[in-house]
Amino acid sequence: MTRHSHTNRRAFLKTAGIGAAAAFAGCTGGRQTDAATASSDETGGDESGEASAEATSLDPAADVDVDRIAADPTDVPDPVDWDEPRTHEVTMETTEVTAEIEPGVTFDYMTFDGQVPGPMVRVRRGDTVNFTLKNPEDSGMPHNMDFHAVYGPGGGADHTTIAPGEEATIQYKATYPGVHIYHCAVPNMDHHISAGMFGSILVEPKDGLPEVDRELYFGQHEIYTNGEPGEEGHHEFDLDAAKAENPTYVTYNGEAYAFTESGNGRIPIDQGDRVRIFMSNGGPNLSSSWHAIGNVWDKLYRDGDLVSDPARYVETTPVAPGTVTAAEIETPVPGPIKLVDHSLSRVVRKGVLGVLDVQGEEDTDIFDSNPDGE
């Protein structure tokens, strides 16, 4: 994994090119200045959200178990291509790992299969799923699984609650279509979800979904810690912050600014591609005002509803915690499309930003950045 060195939060914002004014410029029509000026202007000349001197002292950053916790947004199962019921064998393992939220900032994650969000499960309405959850012996916590796509006690949680060293198997039929969340649902589920234990299950309608050129999968959630955003060191889960619903970070796929130039890189998209995006809001507490800067939700499948006619040309849509929403975009113009939560302090100061990089030729009939030819 390639990540740029981390000196302080202002340097990070400069390098990422997503200083506060830059992010706002995409929404207000203002011309983007250089990122250094942008981050300074929007934060009153301070350290762009860098931790204050009064912040509680943290332990040094811990050794990491993995180089990257963020799931690859392009890792989406192939569309359904069968027309008769099937049985799927699905196994997931709970994995507790230490990883970076951003360079120099470590956190103890709890995951399904070592990534945030957990892997997408994709089936067809009427299919049967044999699901096995494994909790390794070296795990420090009990875990379980609540599928919002399941008729049954706790969405399966009642019968998958397992201690370290145990495993459990349930069988269920995917009776109703839609794209749904799954998550750990032990009593302190707010901690487990904040630490990364959520994902998506897509139950396609029997007639399938319309064909698109690309599909992407993101998960938004809050991380509640005893530190400040950008404060280097090892951050621990903070129950008081969770109770107050005051997160240190709000992220896509578990990392601050994961899909930017200074994170794991922008996501390249060919100009003209129609892209379907699945966005799972794990929460555990906050709704997202989901918006694509420089674009519009051409088709919006609110609340994971894949049966009703989609809404058209929606600029911003709420995605409640415990919900997966799907949307499609067109990409006629090259350049960045910034996926954000339009509660914009979460973008500027807490990390929830992903950038799609549309690559192609300018179409001045649609957008001309220099109409006077100067």
How would you describe this structure to a colleague?
With 374 residues, this protein is mostly beta strands. Helix content is 12%, strand content 34%. It folds into 3 domains: 1-50, no CATH class; 87-204, Cupredoxins -  blue copper proteins (Immunoglobulin-like, Sandwich); 214-359, Sandwich (Immunoglobulin-like), CATH 2.60.40. The protein has a 6-stranded mixed sheet with strand order 11-9-13-18-15-16. The model is unreliable at 1-54 (pLDDT under 50).
Question: What is shown here, in short?
Answer:
The protein has 374 residues and is mainly β. 12% of the residues lie in helices and 34% in strands.
Can you write the helix and strand succession as a string?
HHHEEEEEHEEHEEEHEEEEEEEEEHE
Rounded to the nearest angstrom, the radius of gyration is: 21 Å
Helix residue percentage:
10-25%
Mean pLDDT: 88
What class, by secondary structure content? mainly beta
Strand content: 25-35%
Q: What's the tally of helices? A: 7
CATH domain class name of the largest domain: Mainly Beta
Let me know the number of strands. 20
Kindly identify the CATH topology of the largest domain: Immunoglobulin-like
Strand order of the largest sheet: 11-9-13-18-15-16
Q: Measure the end-to-end span.
A: 41 Å
CATH architecture verdict of the largest domain = Sandwich
Count up the domains.
Answer: 3
Model regions low in confidence, pLDDT < 50 over at least 5 residues: 1-54
Q: What kind of sheet is the major sheet?
A: 6 strands, mixed
CATH superfamily of the largest domain: Cupredoxins -  blue copper proteins
Pfam family, one: Cu-oxidase_3
Protein name: Copper-containing nitrite reductase
Cofactor: Cu(+); Cu(2+)
Organism: Halorubrum salipaludis
